[in-house]
Every structure is written in structure tokens, then in C-alpha cells.
């Protein structure tokens, strides 16, 4: 077993294919407004005026954190990841259940610290922890978190709905998350609810697998493409530092597009709303960076406008010059 | 890593203590009618006339099943266990999310078969599968299932509520589950709802950790004890066969009290309702065994009435003659 944190974000093509095939076979009924495949499931649970949001997510030692990671931060990350998915629907998280897989080496102190990380973050976001199971996973720690949230029926933002001409926006910065952001990020719950309440983005997703892939989901749903401006991409300083320190590291642009674990919002917005939204957002959230990074275009694919021309960014991560 | 299925039911005293300590620290709010500690959490989600039930549960290769176990049965077990907890509250399961930890050796076929086991059982019980994540757990398969259910507010049966003099009842049989029952059991959803609708048990639990321990939870909540009749205990034939085949195996009575993974209902009922309930239950569920195995008494502890006298069954599993 390796204690190195692996790239936690990337899903292989065969994995994506497998999940896509499975999705089509899952039993659903009329109560399921949106099933597996969006950031959360959207459920009509019989709550007047509201949909319920259901999300499950797991983190695994050696993949999402290492044995050396502060257990409080591990617990915090486990719940914050699921909250980021609730944010992506502009929802409010309400209740969480925790399934803790403990390695043979566990101590009571370890469990206490993990739970302290989970519960202190849950308290901060007014989430009740309503169930906590433990099970033995001898080789490594596994934390599976399920969060149930809710959203006003007319304020729920899905991955589908982006339109050609819409601006593409992101909160925060992208890339180099492995240097620390992946343990310290703040799910953009308040920002997302504010956006939905005031400007209703046409589509939204949280950036967990990397901007290129996650934006790709929005574009696939819309059968559209995007043109991004390299100069507008908010690349995290950590990505630049990593690139400077090692020739083996990704160039910062590629890191921003593919590193993952940014846990920021990516949303599309009618261009007519852009200036007003930007102005009011900055007043409402002076500490949250927000950037328009490009626009939705009819032609599928992801294009990056650079100083020396437009490049096409392919699904496998290669940039081809046009 | 061992491929032997270990005793999946028993929790060590230190584990129970740890969980009890954690439980007291979990953040809750007014919406949490019953938090961690019952079979499910009971939540006021704003659904008129109903509570919502939240349950998470995980199964792990080498503990709840082996690498040789039919993957369809593994998937079936993973969801059926959580449904058994919904049954213990007399609830109806509605939506499930699945978190699948895949070992390095996984194949698409394995995943398909696990999901076939999950989805076919979900369909049978009208449960929608609304989310399915996968993650890498290199050494062994882990399946974490969260089920959200619902129950009429006046028909929800908790672990607390047993009264001295109540009869103690169980569905089905106990012991020797490892011979196969743990993969084939039927969560007693219909029986539990029928009981709640017609006779409202004073307390109910599902038998997952063994009758002695699980009944112990009902008794602890009531600050009471129980006197069971050995002759009335429905001991599974498998427990007798295991005892006959190996001197190392538990005697059948001890197996019935401690093996776990029975996934049957254990409930308490006012003695005045006993005859009517038994008569009507047998008509309603001719294929489900139901037994009155003893009664709740004031004095704490678990007593077993045998031919040669009354024995006290201690928490650690030893039987002391009185």
C-alpha cells in the first residue's frame, strides 16, 4: 500500500463508460426528478415547494488523503466534498450520515479527531449528523458521507440548461489543489444560493474532476462547446509553483484544466446578466473571487484562446494547435 | 488479507463505547426527532404527516462476504441490510444511493453483477436508486448504501418504549446465518408495517448483531430486563448443523443468541394484544414464522428459562447458572 496521495480526480475512460452504462439501468420512479448523473439527485419527497437533494461521496486513504494527513482535515474534507455537490444545485444541506471504515491500526483518538473534523464543519454549515456507522476496512481508512439537502423547486440549478452565447463563470481558482486547497476549501453554498435566488444560472456544476472535464459535462448536456480565454483563467498560485519546481509537473494551464479537487462553482449565465451579476456578487461576497472565463459556443469541443491563437483541448488532455 | 468471512456482527465493547461517546457529540437540530442510535434516524423533513428515515450501512469483503461470494448476492445483501433497518421502524424505503469501493482486481463484469444484485432487489421493494459513486479501495470491495425511507408519524416504532410485562416477539429464526441466510434474507418490511398499522408494537429492532445484544438495546432503553424461554426460541436448523459438525462451533442456543445477521424483527407487544395479533399475523403472512420468546421484566439482565432452571446470560456471552 502506498501512502502517496494519488490523483483523486481523474476517472479513466472505461470507468466513465461503465458508470454511464450503469446509470441507464437504475430503477427510478415519478418521485425522481433527476437521478444519478447530476451533482446530486433531485427528489420530490412530498415537501411543499421544495425538492430534496441526495448525495453520497467517499474518500479513501492513499487516494484522497494520506496516512499522515491531519485526521481533522480528513473528516472536514469528507463532508465538505458532499456539501460542494449540494452547492452545485444551489441547495441547502440539512442532514448527513457517516459510514466510517476503520483500518486495523485505528485508535479511539483517530476516530475522535476525524469526527471532530466532520462535526465542527457540519456545525458551521448547520448540518445535523444523524447517523454514524463504523465498519472494519483493515488496510486503510474509508469515509463515506451521505448528505440530504433541499432547494426551492424554482431555484434548483442542474448541469443541463447552458445555451450558446452564455458566459462561463467560475468562483475561486483552479489547479494545484494537491498543495493544500483540497483540505481547506470552502464549499460555495452561500454563493450558489445567492446566484440562484438573484440571477438563476442556466447550468451549474462543482469542479471536482477538473475544469475541462466538469465543464465538459455542462457542454455535453447542452450539445455545445466552449471557448475559454487563457488570460481569464484564475490559475491557483500553487499550480504555478508546482510547475516551477519540477519539470515533471503539469504546465499551469493544464493543471488548471485537469487537476481537479478545486471544489469551486462553474456556471453559465445569460450574457445580459453578466455586468449586473458581477457587480452585485462582488458586493455580496467580497472575499470570493469570481471570473468570467469564456462563453458557450455551438460547435462542440473545448477551445482555449491564447496569445498565439486558438488551441483545441481534447478529452484526453492534449492540446492541439489549430 | 484473509478471504474468510469473519464474524460480521459482533462489535467489541471498546467499539460500542466509542460509538456511544461519539453519538453524544453529534450536531442535531429541531428537525431531528431521533438521531444516531436507533435503527434509523427519524427526521422531520417537512413532509405533511410523515417522518423521513435515514440509514447508512456498509459491507466489506472479507467481513460481510468473501471474494468467492456471488457478486449478485453481495449487492443484494448490501441493500437488503439497510432495508431491514427501515423495516425496524415500520417504514417504507424510497430512495437509495450507492458508494462502491472497487478493489484493483475489479472488472466491468463484477460491477455489473453487483449492481444487478442491488437493482433487482431495489425494484422488488420499489426503491429508486438515485446515485451511484465509485471509488478505488485497492485491497477489497466495499459497498456503502444509504437508504431514505418514510413512515406515518403515528406509526413509527422506536427502540425505546418496551414495558415490563410486554411479550417479546421475533419473526423468523436465529443463529447459523453464516451458512447462507445472511445472503438470502428478506427484510421484514411488509410485516413491520402491518404490525405498526394494526397492533403498534411498543418497541422494535432488527436483529443484526445477535438476539442477546439487539434485545439488550430495547431493554436498556426501557431500563428493564427479559426472561426468555429456551423452548420457544426459533433456532435455525443451520445453527444445529454447525454445532453437530464441529466441536468448535457454538451450541445452538448460544448461536441463536449471539450469531447475528438474522435480519429479523424483534419487537415487544402489550400482552393483551398477543392472541389477536398472532392469529391475524398468521393469516396475513402465512409464510413468515412468528414466535413469542419471552417477556419483559423489571429486573435488568437477560434470563433464559431452561428445563433445568433459569440461567443468566451476561453481556459478554457467558451463561451463568443461577
What attributes characterize this protein structure?
8-stranded mixed beta sheet, Phosphoribosyl-aminoimidazole Synthetase, Chain A, domain 2, 322 residues, 31% helix, homodimer, 60s Ribosomal Protein L30, Chain: A, alpha+beta
Q: What is the total number of structural domains of chain A? A: 2
Secondary-structure-based class of chain A equals alpha+beta
Kindly report the average pLDDT value of chain A.
Answer: 93
The fraction of residues assigned to DSSP E strands of chain A is: 25-35%
Count of runs of 4 or more consecutive helical residues of chain A:
9
Q: What's the alpha carbon Rg of chain A, rounded to whole Å?
A: 19 Å
How does the overall form of chain A come out from the CA principal axes?
Answer: globular
Note the run of SSEs of chain A as H and E: HEEEHEHEEEHHEHEHHEHEEEE
Q: How does CATH name the architecture of the largest domain in chain A?
A: Alpha-Beta Complex
State the assembly state of the protein chains. Answer: homodimer
Terminus-to-terminus distance of chain A: 43 Å
Amino acid at each position: 500500500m502506498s501512502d502517496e496521495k494519488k490523483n483523486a480526480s481523474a476517472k479513466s475512460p472505461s470507468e466513465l463508460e461503465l458508470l454511464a452504462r450503469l446509470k441507464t439501468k437504475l430503477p427510478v420512479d415519478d418521485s425522481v426528478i433527476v437521478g444519478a448523473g447530476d451533482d446530486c439527485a433531485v427528489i420530490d419527497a412530498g415537501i411543499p415547494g421544495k425538492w430534496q437533494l441526495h448525495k453520497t461521496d467517499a474518500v479513501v486513504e492513499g487516494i484522497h488523503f494520506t496516512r499522515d494527513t491531519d485526521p481533522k482535515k480528513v473528516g472536514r474534507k469528507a463532508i465538505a466534498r458532499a456539501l460542494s455537490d449540494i452547492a452545485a444545485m444551489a441547495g441547502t444541506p440539512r442532514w448527513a450520515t457517516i459510514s466510517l471504515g476503520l483500518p486495523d491500526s485505528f485508535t479511539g483518538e483517530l476516530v475522535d479527531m476525524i469526527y471532530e473534523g466532520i462535526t465542527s464543519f457540519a456545525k458551521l454549515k448547520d448540518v445535523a449528523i444523524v447517523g454514524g456507522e463504523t465498519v472494519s476496512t483493515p488496510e486503510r481508512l474509508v469515509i463515506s458521507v451521505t448528505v440530504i439537502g433541499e432547494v426551492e423547486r424554482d431555484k434548483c440549478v442542474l448541469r443541463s440548461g447552458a445555451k450558446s452565447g452564455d458566459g462561463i463563470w467560475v468562483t475561486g481558482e483552479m489547479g494545484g489543489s494537491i498543495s493544500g486547497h483540497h483540505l481547506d476549501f470552502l464549499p460555495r453554498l452561500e454563493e450558489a444560493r445567492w446566484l440562484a435566488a438573484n440571477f438563476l444560472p442556466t447550468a451549474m456544476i462543482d469542479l471536482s474532476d477538473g475544469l475541462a472535464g466538469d465543464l465538459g459535462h455542462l457542454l455535453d448536456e447542452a450539445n455545445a462547446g466552449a471557448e475559454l480565454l487563457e488570460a481569464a483563467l484564475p490559475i491557483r498560485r500553487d499550480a504555478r509553483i508546482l510547475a516551477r519546481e519540477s519539470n515533471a509537473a503539469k504546465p499551469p494551464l493544464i493543471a488548471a484544466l485537469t487537476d481537479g479537487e478545486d471544489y469551486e462553482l462553474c456556471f453559465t449565465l445569460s450574457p445580459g446578466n453578466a455586468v449586473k451579476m458581477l457587480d452585485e456578487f462582488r458586493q455580496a461576497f467580497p472575499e470570493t473571487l469570481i471570473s468570467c472565463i469564456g462563453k458557450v459556443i455551438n460547435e462542440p469541443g473545448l477551445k482555449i484562446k491564447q496569445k498565439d491563437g486558438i488551441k483545441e483541448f481534447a478529452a484526453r488532455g492534449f492540446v492541439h494547435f489549430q
